[in-house]
Amino acid sequence: MQTLTTHAVLARFGKALADPTRAAVLMQLKDGPAFSGDLAERIGVSRQALSNHLACLRDCGLVVAEPEGRRVRYELSDPKLAHALADLLGVILAVEPVCTCGVPECAP
């Protein structure tokens, strides 16, 4: 088993947060588990698009899937991630509440 370096772990987390849809999924799951159809509706993406993002988040080790009958419930892989996401968002908003980079996804 290969041990990831600190840099690789942070890069994996960065990859997950780099996409607005994946970031939205993480923020939704920060508040508790959810079914994929509910997540797609709340975020405003197709189920197929969400499925691809959930696969990425699972591969990054940030999200786990729990079968419940014919549906699948998703949740953060570790409860500490919810706290980390809230802390990260709080720090970013405290440092620079409005992004001025010009990228449309960053607009409030």
UniProtKB/TrEMBL annotation:
Coiled coil: none annotated. Residues 1-96 form the HTH arsR-type domain. GO terms for biological process: response to cadmium ion; response to lead ion. CDD domains: HTH_ARSR (cd00090). One of its GO terms (molecular function) is DNA binding. Pfam families: HTH_5. It comes from the Bacteria. This is ArsR family transcriptional regulator.
